[in-house]
Amino acid sequence: MKIKNLLIKNYKLLKSVIFDINEGLNIFVGGNESCKSTILEVFSIIASTKRFKRGSEVYLCRSWL
Question: What's the pTM value of the predicted model, to 2 decimals?
């Protein structure tokens, strides 16, 4: 499966953001507290239904189950 774009709504500090994902390498650049790790965590949740950080599982929206 290829992800072409990503919409994140109301997750941590992100209220509503759309990212266009290109084939190949995508680089997220920003200062401290600019949500770079949060974006990686969202990809981790999508890929494995577990949080990016160790030890804590996440329960997805009921409609996904």
Answer: 0.64
